[in-house]
Specification:
The complex is a heterodimer of chains A (about 300) and B (about 260). Chain A is α/β, with parallel strands linked by helices. Chain A has two domains: about 1-215, P-loop containing nucleotide triphosphate hydrolases (Rossmann fold), CATH 3.40.50.300; about 220-280, Alpha-Beta Plaits, CATH 3.30.70.100. Chain A contains eleven helices and 13 strands. In chain A, the strands form three sheets. A six-stranded mixed sheet of chain A has the order 5-6-7-3-8-9, sandwiched between helices. Chain A is elongated. Chain A starts with a strand and ends in a 17-residue tail after the last helix. By secondary structure, chain B is mainly α. Chain B has one domain (about 10-260). Chain B has helices spanning about 10-20, 25-50, 60-65, 65-70, 75-95, 95-105, 110-140, 155-180, 185-205, 205-215, 220-225, 235-260. The longest helix of chain B has about 35 residues, at about 110-140. Classes of the chains: A alpha/beta (about 300), B mainly alpha (about 260).
Chain lengths: ~300, ~260
């Protein structure tokens, strides 16, 4: 189990991670979600002992990373796929890593085979596409057959087939009882991949829980098409609902259930053409949760409507 | 591989760093450039001396040193050696692979120790081979026309051996500088400045300063180490070695301390 214990990391005058405190449990895929610049990569670097925490600590099964006897056999990580010497071949890169942790060379061929890059094993890494580098990074993470796996933005650069492959792969790792911790700024991706989600913004923990729990915390909207939108809107606003018009013939209602909207329409004498409850997607949850903590917020032209 | 334990140790990290050292072009090319420069220039200079020997004045003939002359290629090749040392660590920072390396070897003292041993062992072997080869090449060029030196003379043997050690320590100095500066270009610039530019500045200083301080420049320490007898206002070979060792240990110590403290 991976435990982030009141972690704070300050670089000169910016706080990258601010009193972050959570646990990542084995047996499930845990998504680590946050906008760019929210502190995900910093947290990953501190977990691996690359950066020293300003305050707090990170432990893997109770031990600090520096104290692991054979780190690659306990923790496998993919941080930056391109962080490999470009002049070295894929096989030599993996052999050097294997040697440092006394891993058999036959394991190098196994992981090359598994990630589907055996055919380019003797080519220099500098010529690899991002997708191939990503596979090499995954091969390196798997080298020591570790119980804890960390992946920082692993789907970047993968083609759709590769993304499907990696999703299945994460699930199978978790099913084997391993701890799988995957960061991403793509909430839609996490919704498909992760069981548990940890959301951070500006280095602070915003929320954590299962995907279902998180989407339930945010109010859904109801899409309504009706004969007389003006009078229905008036009635809805009187009930303190938030109404946004999505087109000439449709509105989106927040704050009331579809049952309530239907009953209100009946009382108002408006004919309903469509009444569709819309569950908040994880993406919307994410936007709502992190709206205050965007490092580089872009102003939206016009209203942001829930579609 | 020891079947009893899978714990990481210095030997495992040494093996890993040895694979890394020999699997990139910069080290292999550096070694080739080092060979070609030392032997090529040493041979060329020795040949020039031989072909002009009949016109060489009596005074110049008296001060002629067949050892230093045959080793003259080292003055140029020392830059190649420094670059090998620098790139062994800075290439990890420029490519970002230092993060992969440190994730595999979180004990930074162990990592630096393994890298230093790999570099030292590789460079001492290569440097001694190069120095003895260029010495023999020079003597065979001189043979019959110009006075030659023999390795049977203690001071001659010492000069050639210390020439190789001088180059090896330069590689370790370059590596230590790389631990501090981390950037290849900046690091190579500093290295070249200290070996090449600072001696030029000394030319413009008052003679008394030159006589008192010039001998402590790394390049002059190298000169002292590879001459069978000390030049005027220069340290003896063994004292020069001690000063160079002190420089190396200080820069290495600063590099190691920063490596432990800083974020990767």
């Amino acid at each position: 189990m991976l435990k982030i214990d009141h972690l704070t990391k300050r670089y000169e005058d910016t706080i990258a991670v601010d009193d972050l405190d959570f646990e990542v449990k084995p047996g499930v895929v845990t998504g680590f979600l946050g906008p760019n610049g929210s502190g995900k990569s910093t947290t990953m670097r501190v977990i691996l002992g690359l950066d020293h925490p300003t305050k707090g600590r990170v432990t893997i099964d109770g031990k600090k990373y520096e104290d692991l006897k054979s780190p690659l056999r306990e923790v496998g990580a993919l941080l930056d796929a391109k962080a490999v010497h470009p002049g070295r071949t894929a096989r030599n890169h993996l052999r050097a890593l294997a040697a440092s942790n006394r891993i058999k060379w036959s394991r190098v061929d196994e992981v090359l085979e598994f990630t589907g890059i055996s055919s380019v094993a003797n080519k220099k890494v500098g010529g690899f596409s991002l997708g191939m580098s990503q596979r090499l990074g995954i091969a390196a993470a798997l080298l020591g057959d570790p119980q804890v796996l960390l992946f920082d933005e692993p789907v970047n650069g993968l083609d759709p087939e590769g993304i499907r492959w990696i999703r299945e792969f994460f699930r199978s790792l978790a099913k084997e009882g391993r701890t799988v911790f995957v960061s991403s700024h793509l909430m839609s991706e996490m919704a498909l991949t992760a069981d548990q989600i940890i959301v951070i913004g500006r280095g602070k923990l915003i929320t954590q829980g299962s995907v279902d729990d998180l989407t339930a915390t945010v109010q859904g909207t109801v899409l309504v098409r009706a004969s007389n939108l003006t009078s229905l809107t008036k009635a809805l606003v009187a009930k303190k609902a938030i109404v946004q018009s999505t087109s000439d013939t449709a509105i989106s209602v927040t704050g009331l259930s579809s049952d309530e909207v239907g009953e209100l329409a009946f009382k108002t004498g408006v004919v309903i053409h469509e009444l569709t409850p819309q569950r908040a997607s994880l993406e919307e949850v994410f936007m709502e949760l992190t709206a205050d903590s965007l490092e580089y917020g872009a102003s939206m032209p016009g209203d942001v409507s829930h579609e | 591989m020891c079947p009893m334990s899978s714990d990481q140790n210095l030997h495992a990290v040494f093996e890993s760093e040895w694979i890394k050292f020999r699997s990139v072009r910069s080290s292999v090319m550096g070694v080739i450039v080092f060979f070609v420069l030392t032997l090529g220039l040493g041979g060329l200079i020795s040949w020039a001396v031989r072909s002009h020997w009949s016109q060489t004045s009596g005074a110049d003939r008296l001060t002629f040193d067949p050892v230093s002359t045959s080793l003259a290629g080292i003055l140029f090749a020392q830059f190649a050696v420094g670059v090998i040392g620098v790139l062994f660590i800075t290439s990890e920072y420029s490519s970002g692979s230092i993060r992969t390396t440190l994730a595999a070897v979180p004990n930074r003292i162990r990592l630096v120790a393994a890298k230093t041993i790999v570099l030292f062992v590789a460079m001492i072997v290569v440097s001694e081979v190069v120095c003895f080869a260029t010495f023999e090449l020079g003597q065979s060029v001189f043979n019959g026309v110009v006075p030659t030196a023999s390795l049977a003379t203690t001071d001659v043997l010492r000069s050639v051996l210390l020439a190789g050690l001088y180059l090896t320590l330069l590689a370790v100095l370059g590596f230590s500088l790389g631990l501090i500066v981390r950037q290849s270009a900046a690091c190579i610039s500093i290295f070249v400045s200290v070996l090449l530019i600072v001696p030029i500045i000394f030319v413009f200083l008052p003679t008394s300063w030159q006589n008192s301080y010039e001998k402590y420049l790394p390049s002059e320490l190298g000169r002292s180490m590879m001459s069978p007898f000390p030049a005027a206002h220069h340290l003896g070979a063994w004292n020069a070695l001690i000063v160079l060792l002190i420089y190396t240990v200080v820069v290495f110590g600063v590099g190691l301390t920063l490596m432990r403290r800083r974020d990767a």
